[in-house]
Amino acid sequence: MSDFFFQLHPVIQGLIKGLAVIAVIFPIAGICSMAERKVSAWIQGRPGPNRAIPFWFAWVPVLGPFLQRLGIFHVMADGGKMLFKEDSLPGHVNKFYFILAPIVAMMPALTTVTAVPFGAYFDPAGRTIPLGLAPVDVGLLAVFAVSSLGVYSLILAGWASNSKYPFLGGVRASAQLISYELSLTLSVIPVFLWINAPGTEGTMSLARAVEFQSQPGFLGGTWFIFLMPVSALVFLISLFAETNRLPFDMAEGEADLVGGFHTEYGAFKWGLFFVAEYSHMLIGSGIFTLLFLGGWNPLPWLSLGQFAALLHVAHLPLAVGVLSIVIFLGKVLAMIFFFMWVRWTVPRFRYDQVMKLGWQKLLPLAIANLLFYAIAIAVIQK
Amino acid sequence: MAQFLFNLFAAFTLVCALGVVVNKNAVNAAMCLLLALVGVAGLFVALNAYLLAFLLLLVYAGAVVALFLFIIMLLDTKGEQRPGLKHASLVARLFAAALVGAGLLSFFARSRLPEPALGPASAAVGAELKLYAYQLFTTYLLPVQVIGFLLLAAMLGVIVISKKLDAAEDAP
Protein backbone atom coordinates (compact mmCIF):
# COMPACT_ATOMS: atom_id res chain seq x y z
CA MET A 1 0.00 0.00 0.00
CA SER A 2 2.64 2.51 1.05
CA ASP A 3 4.94 1.33 -1.75
CA PHE A 4 2.23 2.10 -4.26
CA PHE A 5 1.90 5.62 -2.87
CA PHE A 6 5.62 6.33 -3.05
CA GLN A 7 5.81 5.13 -6.66
CA LEU A 8 3.42 7.86 -7.80
CA HIS A 9 4.61 11.03 -9.44
CA PRO A 10 5.64 13.61 -6.78
CA VAL A 11 3.05 16.07 -8.04
CA ILE A 12 0.28 13.48 -7.62
CA GLN A 13 1.64 12.58 -4.18
CA GLY A 14 1.53 16.22 -3.18
CA LEU A 15 -1.98 16.54 -4.56
CA ILE A 16 -3.20 13.54 -2.55
CA LYS A 17 -1.56 14.80 0.63
CA GLY A 18 -3.01 18.26 0.11
CA LEU A 19 -6.51 16.92 -0.50
CA ALA A 20 -6.21 14.70 2.58
CA VAL A 21 -5.34 17.69 4.78
CA ILE A 22 -8.16 19.76 3.27
CA ALA A 23 -10.50 16.83 3.85
CA VAL A 24 -9.59 17.04 7.54
CA ILE A 25 -9.66 20.85 7.89
CA PHE A 26 -13.00 21.41 6.15
CA PRO A 27 -15.10 19.10 8.37
CA ILE A 28 -13.31 20.30 11.51
CA ALA A 29 -14.21 23.85 10.54
CA GLY A 30 -17.81 22.73 10.08
CA ILE A 31 -17.90 20.90 13.38
CA CYS A 32 -16.34 23.94 15.06
CA SER A 33 -19.41 25.95 14.09
CA MET A 34 -21.57 23.43 15.95
CA ALA A 35 -19.15 23.34 18.88
CA GLU A 36 -19.40 27.12 19.00
CA ARG A 37 -23.18 26.92 19.45
CA LYS A 38 -22.93 24.18 22.02
CA VAL A 39 -20.18 25.88 24.01
CA SER A 40 -22.06 29.17 23.96
CA ALA A 41 -25.14 27.31 25.17
CA TRP A 42 -23.28 25.66 28.05
CA ILE A 43 -21.70 28.96 29.07
CA GLN A 44 -25.09 30.66 29.04
CA GLY A 45 -26.83 27.76 30.81
CA ARG A 46 -29.11 26.54 28.02
CA PRO A 47 -29.16 23.24 26.14
CA GLY A 48 -28.28 24.51 22.67
CA PRO A 49 -29.27 22.79 19.40
CA ASN A 50 -30.79 19.43 20.37
CA ARG A 51 -33.69 18.68 18.01
CA ALA A 52 -32.50 17.69 14.55
CA ILE A 53 -32.39 13.94 13.88
CA PRO A 54 -33.14 11.76 10.84
CA PHE A 55 -36.32 9.81 11.67
CA TRP A 56 -34.72 6.40 11.12
CA PHE A 57 -31.89 7.22 13.50
CA ALA A 58 -34.37 7.96 16.28
CA TRP A 59 -35.13 4.23 16.40
CA VAL A 60 -31.57 3.46 17.62
CA PRO A 61 -32.17 3.00 21.37
CA VAL A 62 -29.47 4.85 23.42
CA LEU A 63 -27.14 6.27 20.80
CA GLY A 64 -29.86 8.08 18.82
CA PRO A 65 -31.17 10.39 21.54
CA PHE A 66 -27.63 10.92 22.84
CA LEU A 67 -26.34 12.14 19.47
CA GLN A 68 -29.52 14.14 19.04
CA ARG A 69 -28.94 16.00 22.29
CA LEU A 70 -25.30 16.54 21.30
CA GLY A 71 -26.46 18.29 18.13
CA ILE A 72 -24.43 16.09 15.76
CA PHE A 73 -27.20 16.03 13.15
CA HIS A 74 -27.60 19.77 13.35
CA VAL A 75 -24.19 20.20 11.66
CA MET A 76 -25.38 18.15 8.69
CA ALA A 77 -28.67 20.02 8.50
CA ASP A 78 -26.74 23.28 8.62
CA GLY A 79 -24.35 22.22 5.88
CA GLY A 80 -27.24 21.00 3.72
CA LYS A 81 -29.08 24.24 4.25
CA MET A 82 -25.98 26.19 3.17
CA LEU A 83 -25.73 24.15 -0.03
CA PHE A 84 -29.37 24.13 -1.07
CA LYS A 85 -30.35 27.68 -0.22
CA GLU A 86 -30.94 30.00 -3.12
CA ASP A 87 -27.69 31.75 -3.87
CA SER A 88 -28.98 35.20 -4.62
CA LEU A 89 -26.84 37.93 -6.09
CA PRO A 90 -27.94 41.44 -5.08
CA GLY A 91 -28.44 43.80 -8.00
CA HIS A 92 -26.30 46.66 -6.73
CA VAL A 93 -23.02 44.82 -6.22
CA ASN A 94 -19.86 44.70 -8.29
CA LYS A 95 -20.38 41.12 -9.47
CA PHE A 96 -16.77 40.19 -10.23
CA TYR A 97 -15.34 41.19 -6.86
CA PHE A 98 -18.47 40.07 -5.02
CA ILE A 99 -17.95 36.51 -6.24
CA LEU A 100 -14.17 36.73 -5.96
CA ALA A 101 -14.16 37.73 -2.27
CA PRO A 102 -15.27 34.40 -0.72
CA ILE A 103 -12.81 32.56 -2.97
CA VAL A 104 -10.01 34.87 -1.88
CA ALA A 105 -11.06 34.17 1.71
CA MET A 106 -10.59 30.42 1.29
CA MET A 107 -7.31 30.49 -0.64
CA PRO A 108 -4.91 31.83 2.01
CA ALA A 109 -6.74 29.88 4.70
CA LEU A 110 -6.05 26.59 2.93
CA THR A 111 -2.65 27.56 1.49
CA THR A 112 -1.08 28.31 4.87
CA VAL A 113 -1.68 24.70 5.91
CA THR A 114 1.17 23.64 3.63
CA ALA A 115 3.78 25.30 5.84
CA VAL A 116 2.43 24.03 9.18
CA PRO A 117 3.92 20.75 10.40
CA PHE A 118 1.32 18.74 12.31
CA GLY A 119 3.21 15.74 13.60
CA ALA A 120 6.51 13.89 13.61
CA TYR A 121 8.04 10.44 13.59
CA PHE A 122 11.50 9.03 14.19
CA ASP A 123 13.51 7.46 11.40
CA PRO A 124 15.68 4.40 12.18
CA ALA A 125 18.64 6.68 12.94
CA GLY A 126 16.61 8.33 15.70
CA ARG A 127 16.20 11.70 14.04
CA THR A 128 12.87 13.53 14.23
CA ILE A 129 11.18 13.87 10.83
CA PRO A 130 8.34 16.40 10.89
CA LEU A 131 5.11 15.56 9.08
CA GLY A 132 3.88 18.35 6.90
CA LEU A 133 2.91 19.15 3.36
CA ALA A 134 5.88 21.31 2.44
CA PRO A 135 8.91 21.45 4.74
CA VAL A 136 9.78 25.01 3.76
CA ASP A 137 12.69 26.49 5.62
CA VAL A 138 11.08 29.91 5.82
CA GLY A 139 8.26 28.23 7.78
CA LEU A 140 6.55 30.85 9.86
CA LEU A 141 7.38 33.63 7.41
CA ALA A 142 5.49 31.75 4.70
CA VAL A 143 2.47 31.37 6.97
CA PHE A 144 2.49 35.06 7.90
CA ALA A 145 3.02 36.15 4.30
CA VAL A 146 0.20 34.07 2.85
CA SER A 147 -2.26 34.61 5.68
CA SER A 148 -1.73 38.37 5.44
CA LEU A 149 -3.35 38.12 2.00
CA GLY A 150 -6.58 37.11 3.73
CA VAL A 151 -7.35 40.75 4.45
CA TYR A 152 -8.22 41.26 0.78
CA SER A 153 -11.27 39.07 1.02
CA LEU A 154 -12.70 41.31 3.73
CA ILE A 155 -11.79 44.52 1.93
CA LEU A 156 -13.14 43.28 -1.41
CA ALA A 157 -16.32 41.91 0.11
CA GLY A 158 -16.93 45.21 1.88
CA TRP A 159 -16.22 47.29 -1.17
CA ALA A 160 -17.97 45.14 -3.77
CA SER A 161 -21.18 44.91 -1.73
CA ASN A 162 -21.73 48.60 -2.46
CA SER A 163 -23.73 49.33 0.67
CA LYS A 164 -22.93 51.03 3.93
CA TYR A 165 -22.62 48.31 6.57
CA PRO A 166 -20.31 46.06 4.54
CA PHE A 167 -18.25 49.09 3.55
CA LEU A 168 -17.71 50.08 7.18
CA GLY A 169 -16.84 46.48 8.01
CA GLY A 170 -14.30 46.34 5.20
CA VAL A 171 -12.64 49.61 6.21
CA ARG A 172 -12.45 48.52 9.84
CA ALA A 173 -11.06 45.13 8.88
CA SER A 174 -8.24 46.53 6.79
CA ALA A 175 -7.14 48.95 9.52
CA GLN A 176 -7.42 46.37 12.30
CA LEU A 177 -5.63 43.53 10.55
CA ILE A 178 -2.69 45.69 9.50
CA SER A 179 -2.37 47.18 13.00
CA TYR A 180 -2.22 43.85 14.79
CA GLU A 181 0.05 42.19 12.24
CA LEU A 182 2.89 44.32 13.63
CA SER A 183 2.61 43.04 17.20
CA LEU A 184 1.96 39.52 15.93
CA THR A 185 5.22 39.49 13.99
CA LEU A 186 7.23 41.21 16.71
CA SER A 187 6.00 38.81 19.39
CA VAL A 188 7.47 35.70 17.74
CA ILE A 189 10.93 37.17 17.12
CA PRO A 190 12.22 36.27 20.64
CA VAL A 191 11.35 32.63 19.96
CA PHE A 192 13.42 32.59 16.79
CA LEU A 193 16.26 34.55 18.40
CA TRP A 194 16.38 31.80 21.01
CA ILE A 195 16.25 28.81 18.67
CA ASN A 196 18.73 30.31 16.21
CA ALA A 197 21.57 29.89 18.67
CA PRO A 198 25.05 30.96 17.51
CA GLY A 199 26.63 28.38 15.23
CA THR A 200 23.35 27.02 13.86
CA GLU A 201 21.90 27.59 10.43
CA GLY A 202 19.45 30.45 10.40
CA THR A 203 15.91 29.08 10.18
CA MET A 204 12.29 30.12 10.61
CA SER A 205 11.08 26.54 10.62
CA LEU A 206 8.23 25.72 12.97
CA ALA A 207 9.38 22.12 13.37
CA ARG A 208 12.69 23.46 14.68
CA ALA A 209 10.81 25.41 17.35
CA VAL A 210 9.16 22.19 18.54
CA GLU A 211 12.47 20.34 18.46
CA PHE A 212 13.89 23.00 20.73
CA GLN A 213 11.10 22.41 23.23
CA SER A 214 11.67 18.64 23.32
CA GLN A 215 15.27 18.63 24.47
CA PRO A 216 16.25 16.79 27.63
CA GLY A 217 16.87 18.73 30.81
CA PHE A 218 14.84 21.32 32.67
CA LEU A 219 15.52 24.30 30.39
CA GLY A 220 15.40 22.22 27.21
CA GLY A 221 12.00 20.73 27.97
CA THR A 222 10.38 23.98 29.04
CA TRP A 223 7.62 25.09 26.71
CA PHE A 224 8.12 28.59 25.39
CA ILE A 225 4.92 29.77 27.02
CA PHE A 226 6.74 29.48 30.36
CA LEU A 227 10.00 30.81 28.97
CA MET A 228 8.44 33.77 27.14
CA PRO A 229 5.02 34.43 28.68
CA VAL A 230 4.78 38.01 27.40
CA SER A 231 5.48 36.90 23.84
CA ALA A 232 2.78 34.27 24.13
CA LEU A 233 0.29 36.78 25.52
CA VAL A 234 0.94 39.37 22.80
CA PHE A 235 0.78 36.66 20.14
CA LEU A 236 -2.50 35.33 21.50
CA ILE A 237 -4.18 38.74 21.66
CA SER A 238 -2.98 39.60 18.16
CA LEU A 239 -4.24 36.24 16.98
CA PHE A 240 -7.72 37.05 18.27
CA ALA A 241 -7.58 40.34 16.38
CA GLU A 242 -6.22 38.76 13.22
CA THR A 243 -8.91 36.09 13.11
CA ASN A 244 -11.64 38.68 13.73
CA ARG A 245 -12.87 36.84 16.79
CA LEU A 246 -14.71 38.48 19.59
CA PRO A 247 -13.74 40.66 21.46
CA PHE A 248 -12.22 41.99 18.21
CA ASP A 249 -15.03 41.28 15.75
CA MET A 250 -14.98 44.79 14.33
CA ALA A 251 -15.21 43.59 10.73
CA GLU A 252 -18.46 41.74 11.40
CA GLY A 253 -19.78 43.66 14.37
CA GLU A 254 -23.17 41.99 14.66
CA ALA A 255 -24.16 44.51 17.29
CA ASP A 256 -23.60 47.62 15.20
CA LEU A 257 -23.00 46.56 11.57
CA VAL A 258 -25.59 43.77 11.10
CA GLY A 259 -23.04 41.39 9.59
CA GLY A 260 -20.23 43.72 8.63
CA PHE A 261 -18.41 42.80 5.47
CA HIS A 262 -20.66 39.81 4.76
CA THR A 263 -24.04 41.52 5.27
CA GLU A 264 -24.95 41.11 1.59
CA TYR A 265 -23.81 37.51 1.36
CA GLY A 266 -25.97 34.43 1.71
CA ALA A 267 -25.99 30.69 1.24
CA PHE A 268 -22.71 29.02 0.31
CA LYS A 269 -20.77 32.24 -0.32
CA TRP A 270 -21.44 33.22 3.30
CA GLY A 271 -20.56 29.69 4.33
CA LEU A 272 -17.15 30.04 2.69
CA PHE A 273 -16.39 33.13 4.78
CA PHE A 274 -17.43 31.17 7.83
CA VAL A 275 -15.24 28.18 7.01
CA ALA A 276 -12.35 30.51 6.18
CA GLU A 277 -12.66 32.15 9.60
CA TYR A 278 -12.54 28.80 11.35
CA SER A 279 -9.64 27.64 9.16
CA HIS A 280 -7.74 30.76 10.16
CA MET A 281 -8.49 29.95 13.79
CA LEU A 282 -7.32 26.37 13.33
CA ILE A 283 -4.07 27.44 11.70
CA GLY A 284 -3.50 30.24 14.19
CA SER A 285 -4.05 27.83 17.07
CA GLY A 286 -1.69 25.40 15.34
CA ILE A 287 1.05 28.04 15.15
CA PHE A 288 0.50 28.98 18.79
CA THR A 289 0.71 25.31 19.77
CA LEU A 290 3.91 24.78 17.79
CA LEU A 291 5.62 27.91 19.05
CA PHE A 292 4.53 28.11 22.66
CA LEU A 293 2.78 24.90 23.71
CA GLY A 294 5.45 22.39 22.73
CA GLY A 295 3.85 21.21 19.49
CA TRP A 296 3.44 17.43 19.55
CA ASN A 297 5.07 16.91 22.95
CA PRO A 298 2.41 15.60 25.34
CA LEU A 299 3.51 17.44 28.49
CA PRO A 300 6.16 19.95 29.49
CA TRP A 301 9.41 18.10 30.25
CA LEU A 302 7.99 14.96 28.61
CA SER A 303 8.95 14.86 24.94
CA LEU A 304 7.27 12.78 22.25
CA GLY A 305 10.25 10.43 22.18
CA GLN A 306 10.08 9.70 25.90
CA PHE A 307 6.30 9.29 25.74
CA ALA A 308 6.54 6.88 22.81
CA ALA A 309 9.22 4.91 24.70
CA LEU A 310 6.89 4.72 27.71
CA LEU A 311 4.19 3.23 25.46
CA HIS A 312 6.79 0.93 23.78
CA VAL A 313 5.98 2.23 20.27
CA ALA A 314 9.08 4.32 19.60
CA HIS A 315 10.29 1.89 16.91
CA LEU A 316 7.04 2.07 14.90
CA PRO A 317 7.08 5.21 12.71
CA LEU A 318 3.38 4.91 11.89
CA ALA A 319 2.31 4.66 15.55
CA VAL A 320 4.52 7.57 16.58
CA GLY A 321 3.20 9.61 13.66
CA VAL A 322 -0.42 8.99 14.57
CA LEU A 323 0.31 9.62 18.25
CA SER A 324 1.98 12.96 17.49
CA ILE A 325 -0.89 14.04 15.23
CA VAL A 326 -3.43 13.13 17.92
CA ILE A 327 -1.54 15.09 20.57
CA PHE A 328 -1.13 18.09 18.26
CA LEU A 329 -4.78 18.07 17.18
CA GLY A 330 -5.87 17.73 20.80
CA LYS A 331 -3.94 20.85 21.74
CA VAL A 332 -5.29 22.73 18.72
CA LEU A 333 -8.87 21.82 19.59
CA ALA A 334 -8.26 22.89 23.19
CA MET A 335 -7.09 26.23 21.81
CA ILE A 336 -10.26 26.45 19.71
CA PHE A 337 -12.28 25.85 22.85
CA PHE A 338 -10.33 28.67 24.47
CA PHE A 339 -11.25 30.93 21.54
CA MET A 340 -14.94 30.16 22.08
CA TRP A 341 -14.66 30.47 25.83
CA VAL A 342 -13.24 33.98 25.46
CA ARG A 343 -15.86 34.89 22.88
CA TRP A 344 -18.73 34.14 25.22
CA THR A 345 -17.06 35.58 28.33
CA VAL A 346 -15.33 38.85 27.43
CA PRO A 347 -17.44 41.81 26.25
CA ARG A 348 -16.46 43.26 22.90
CA PHE A 349 -14.36 46.39 22.49
CA ARG A 350 -15.35 49.62 20.87
CA TYR A 351 -13.41 50.40 17.72
CA ASP A 352 -11.31 53.17 19.27
CA GLN A 353 -10.44 50.82 22.11
CA VAL A 354 -9.26 48.22 19.60
CA MET A 355 -6.96 50.75 17.93
CA LYS A 356 -5.71 52.09 21.26
CA LEU A 357 -4.94 48.59 22.51
CA GLY A 358 -3.13 47.69 19.32
CA TRP A 359 -0.96 50.76 18.88
CA GLN A 360 -0.50 52.17 22.37
CA LYS A 361 -0.35 49.04 24.52
CA LEU A 362 0.40 45.89 22.53
CA LEU A 363 3.01 47.31 20.15
CA PRO A 364 5.18 49.00 22.83
CA LEU A 365 4.85 45.86 24.96
CA ALA A 366 5.98 43.70 22.04
CA ILE A 367 8.95 45.99 21.32
CA ALA A 368 10.00 46.10 25.00
CA ASN A 369 9.65 42.33 25.19
CA LEU A 370 11.79 41.92 22.09
CA LEU A 371 14.51 44.21 23.47
CA PHE A 372 14.52 42.40 26.81
CA TYR A 373 14.84 38.96 25.21
CA ALA A 374 17.41 40.16 22.66
CA ILE A 375 19.68 41.29 25.49
CA ALA A 376 18.92 38.28 27.72
CA ILE A 377 19.51 35.78 24.90
CA ALA A 378 22.72 37.53 23.88
CA VAL A 379 23.99 37.23 27.46
CA ILE A 380 22.92 33.59 27.92
CA GLN A 381 24.05 32.26 24.55
CA LYS A 382 27.31 34.22 24.44
CA MET B 1 10.96 23.71 -15.84
CA ALA B 2 12.61 26.55 -13.91
CA GLN B 3 13.15 28.53 -17.11
CA PHE B 4 9.53 28.01 -18.13
CA LEU B 5 8.27 29.14 -14.73
CA PHE B 6 10.53 32.20 -14.85
CA ASN B 7 9.16 33.19 -18.26
CA LEU B 8 5.61 32.55 -17.10
CA PHE B 9 5.96 34.72 -14.01
CA ALA B 10 7.78 37.42 -15.97
CA ALA B 11 4.99 37.61 -18.54
CA PHE B 12 2.35 37.55 -15.77
CA THR B 13 4.11 40.38 -13.91
CA LEU B 14 4.38 42.51 -17.04
CA VAL B 15 0.72 42.05 -17.98
CA CYS B 16 -0.42 42.90 -14.45
CA ALA B 17 1.90 45.91 -14.29
CA LEU B 18 0.40 47.13 -17.53
CA GLY B 19 -3.02 46.67 -15.97
CA VAL B 20 -2.04 48.94 -13.08
CA VAL B 21 -1.21 51.77 -15.46
CA VAL B 22 -4.07 51.31 -17.92
CA ASN B 23 -7.00 50.67 -15.55
CA LYS B 24 -9.22 53.65 -14.87
CA ASN B 25 -10.91 52.09 -11.87
CA ALA B 26 -8.59 52.60 -8.89
CA VAL B 27 -9.62 49.34 -7.18
CA ASN B 28 -8.90 47.34 -10.32
CA ALA B 29 -5.52 49.03 -10.58
CA ALA B 30 -4.70 48.18 -6.97
CA MET B 31 -5.69 44.55 -7.50
CA CYS B 32 -3.48 44.43 -10.60
CA LEU B 33 -0.64 45.83 -8.50
CA LEU B 34 -1.25 43.03 -6.00
CA LEU B 35 -1.09 40.41 -8.74
CA ALA B 36 2.07 42.02 -10.16
CA LEU B 37 3.70 41.79 -6.72
CA VAL B 38 2.71 38.13 -6.48
CA GLY B 39 4.30 37.65 -9.90
CA VAL B 40 7.52 39.28 -8.72
CA ALA B 41 7.48 37.01 -5.67
CA GLY B 42 7.16 34.09 -8.08
CA LEU B 43 10.19 35.39 -9.98
CA PHE B 44 12.16 35.47 -6.73
CA VAL B 45 11.16 31.87 -6.01
CA ALA B 46 12.28 30.86 -9.51
CA LEU B 47 15.63 32.51 -8.71
CA ASN B 48 15.91 30.58 -5.41
CA ALA B 49 15.49 33.73 -3.32
CA TYR B 50 12.72 32.24 -1.16
CA LEU B 51 13.20 34.55 1.77
CA LEU B 52 12.96 37.64 -0.40
CA ALA B 53 9.82 36.26 -2.05
CA PHE B 54 8.01 35.82 1.25
CA LEU B 55 9.25 39.15 2.61
CA LEU B 56 7.87 40.82 -0.50
CA LEU B 57 4.52 39.10 -0.02
CA LEU B 58 4.42 39.94 3.67
CA VAL B 59 5.34 43.61 3.43
CA TYR B 60 4.09 44.78 0.06
CA ALA B 61 1.28 42.43 -0.91
CA GLY B 62 0.07 41.92 2.65
CA ALA B 63 0.24 45.42 4.03
CA VAL B 64 1.13 48.16 1.54
CA VAL B 65 -1.45 47.33 -1.13
CA ALA B 66 -4.04 46.75 1.60
CA LEU B 67 -3.36 50.31 2.76
CA PHE B 68 -3.70 51.54 -0.82
CA LEU B 69 -7.11 49.87 -1.03
CA PHE B 70 -8.02 51.35 2.34
CA ILE B 71 -7.24 54.86 1.08
CA ILE B 72 -9.01 54.26 -2.24
CA MET B 73 -12.11 53.09 -0.40
CA LEU B 74 -12.03 56.04 2.00
CA LEU B 75 -11.67 58.57 -0.81
CA ASP B 76 -14.23 56.63 -2.86
CA THR B 77 -12.64 57.48 -6.19
CA LYS B 78 -14.60 56.65 -9.29
CA GLY B 79 -13.09 56.29 -12.72
CA GLU B 80 -13.56 59.92 -13.64
CA GLN B 81 -12.64 61.75 -16.79
CA ARG B 82 -9.09 62.86 -16.49
CA PRO B 83 -8.44 66.57 -16.77
CA GLY B 84 -6.53 67.69 -19.83
CA LEU B 85 -2.78 67.90 -19.77
CA LYS B 86 -1.29 70.98 -18.23
CA HIS B 87 2.03 72.31 -19.42
CA ALA B 88 3.81 71.52 -16.20
CA SER B 89 2.53 67.95 -16.07
CA LEU B 90 3.42 67.44 -19.73
CA VAL B 91 6.98 68.57 -19.07
CA ALA B 92 7.12 66.34 -16.00
CA ARG B 93 5.91 63.36 -18.01
CA LEU B 94 8.43 63.94 -20.76
CA PHE B 95 11.16 64.25 -18.15
CA ALA B 96 10.04 61.02 -16.46
CA ALA B 97 9.94 59.19 -19.78
CA ALA B 98 13.42 60.46 -20.59
CA LEU B 99 14.66 59.27 -17.20
CA VAL B 100 13.21 55.80 -17.70
CA GLY B 101 14.64 55.69 -21.21
CA ALA B 102 18.09 56.73 -20.01
CA GLY B 103 17.92 54.13 -17.24
CA LEU B 104 16.97 51.35 -19.66
CA LEU B 105 19.63 52.47 -22.12
CA SER B 106 22.39 52.45 -19.54
CA PHE B 107 21.12 49.09 -18.27
CA PHE B 108 21.37 47.53 -21.72
CA ALA B 109 24.66 49.20 -22.54
CA ARG B 110 26.55 48.63 -19.29
CA SER B 111 25.05 45.73 -17.41
CA ARG B 112 27.08 42.86 -18.76
CA LEU B 113 27.57 40.58 -15.82
CA PRO B 114 30.31 38.00 -16.26
CA GLU B 115 28.84 34.63 -17.20
CA PRO B 116 28.39 32.69 -13.97
CA ALA B 117 30.63 29.66 -13.75
CA LEU B 118 28.59 26.50 -14.11
CA GLY B 119 28.66 23.99 -11.31
CA PRO B 120 27.42 24.18 -7.75
CA ALA B 121 25.68 27.54 -7.81
CA SER B 122 26.42 29.87 -4.94
CA ALA B 123 23.40 30.54 -2.76
CA ALA B 124 21.51 33.71 -3.60
CA VAL B 125 21.73 36.43 -0.97
CA GLY B 126 17.96 36.43 -0.63
CA ALA B 127 17.74 32.68 -0.11
CA GLU B 128 19.02 32.24 3.40
CA LEU B 129 18.12 34.04 6.56
CA LYS B 130 21.64 34.24 7.91
CA LEU B 131 23.28 35.42 4.69
CA TYR B 132 20.56 37.98 4.12
CA ALA B 133 20.80 39.37 7.64
CA TYR B 134 24.59 39.45 7.44
CA GLN B 135 24.45 41.47 4.21
CA LEU B 136 21.85 43.77 5.69
CA PHE B 137 24.02 44.58 8.70
CA THR B 138 27.34 44.87 6.85
CA THR B 139 27.28 45.79 3.16
CA TYR B 140 23.93 47.53 3.10
CA LEU B 141 23.91 49.01 6.59
CA LEU B 142 24.16 52.63 5.45
CA PRO B 143 21.36 52.50 2.83
CA VAL B 144 19.06 50.77 5.31
CA GLN B 145 19.74 53.38 7.97
CA VAL B 146 19.30 56.26 5.52
CA ILE B 147 15.98 54.90 4.28
CA GLY B 148 14.85 54.30 7.84
CA PHE B 149 15.68 57.88 8.71
CA LEU B 150 13.81 59.10 5.63
CA LEU B 151 10.72 57.15 6.65
CA LEU B 152 10.98 58.55 10.18
CA ALA B 153 11.11 62.07 8.78
CA ALA B 154 8.08 61.37 6.57
CA MET B 155 6.18 59.95 9.54
CA LEU B 156 6.97 63.00 11.69
CA GLY B 157 5.87 65.22 8.82
CA VAL B 158 2.51 63.43 8.65
CA ILE B 159 2.00 63.82 12.38
CA VAL B 160 2.86 67.53 12.24
CA ILE B 161 0.54 68.17 9.27
CA SER B 162 -2.41 66.14 10.55
CA LYS B 163 -2.31 67.35 14.14
CA LYS B 164 -4.50 70.35 14.84
CA LEU B 165 -2.25 72.45 17.01
CA ASP B 166 -4.89 74.88 18.23
CA ALA B 167 -7.46 72.25 19.26
CA ALA B 168 -7.77 72.23 23.03
CA GLU B 169 -8.61 68.53 23.37
CA ASP B 170 -5.41 67.57 21.57
CA ALA B 171 -3.24 69.37 24.08
CA PRO B 172 -1.49 66.94 26.42
Structure overview:
The complex is a heterodimer of chains A (382) and B (172). Chain A has 382 residues and is mainly α. Chain A has helices at 2-7, 10-43, 63-70, 72-84, 95-111, 139-147, 151-160, 164-195, 206-213, 218-221, 224-227, 229-242, 254-257, 267-292, 304-310, 317-343, 351-380; strands at 119-122, 128-131. A two-stranded antiparallel sheet of chain A has the order 1-2. Among the domains of chain B are: 1-79, NADH-ubiquinone/plastoquinone oxidoreductase chain 6, subunit NuoJ (Four Helix Bundle (Hemerythrin (Met), subunit A)), CATH 1.20.120.1200; 128-163. Helix content of chain B is 72%, strand content 0%. Chain B has 6 helices and no strands. Chain B starts with a helix and ends in a 10-residue tail after the last helix. Classes of the chains: A mainly alpha (382), B mainly alpha (172). At the A-B interface, helix 6, helix 7 and helix 8 of A face helix 3 and helix 5 of B.
Write the topology of this structure.
The complex is a heterodimer of chains A (382) and B (172).
Chain A: H1 2-7, H2 10-43, H3 63-70, H4 72-84, H5 95-111, E1 119-122, E2 128-131, H6 139-147, H7 151-160, H8 164-195, H9 206-213, H10 218-221, H11 224-227, H12 229-242, H13 254-257, H14 267-292, H15 304-310, H16 317-343, H17 351-380
Antiparallel strand pairs in A: 1-2
Chain B: H1 2-22, H2 26-46, H3 50-75, H4 87-110, H5 129-137, H6 141-162
Helix pairs in contact in B: 1-2, 2-3
C-alpha geometry of chain A: globular
CATH architecture of the domain at 1-79 in chain B: Up-down Bundle
N to C succession of SSEs of chain A: HHHHHEEHHHHHHHHHHHH
Q: Largest interface, by Cβ-Cβ below 8 angstroms: which chains and how many residues each?
A: A-B, 29 and 22 residues
CATH topology value of the domain at 1-79 in chain B: Four Helix Bundle (Hemerythrin (Met), subunit A)
**Low-pLDDT residue intervals, each spanning 5 or more residues of chain A:** none
User: How many helices of chain B in DSSP terms?
Assistant: 6
Distance from N terminus to C terminus of chain B (CA atoms, Å) equals: 62 Å
Assign the CATH superfamily of the domain at 1-79 in chain B: NADH-ubiquinone/plastoquinone oxidoreductase chain 6, subunit NuoJ
Distance between the termini of chain A: 50 Å
Please bin the fraction of helical residues of chain A. 55-70%
Strand tally of chain B is: 0
Order of helix and strand elements from N to C terminus of chain B: HHHHHH
The percent of residues in helical segments of chain B reads: over 70%
Strand content of chain B is under 5%
**Major beta sheet of chain A, specifics?**
2 strands, antiparallel
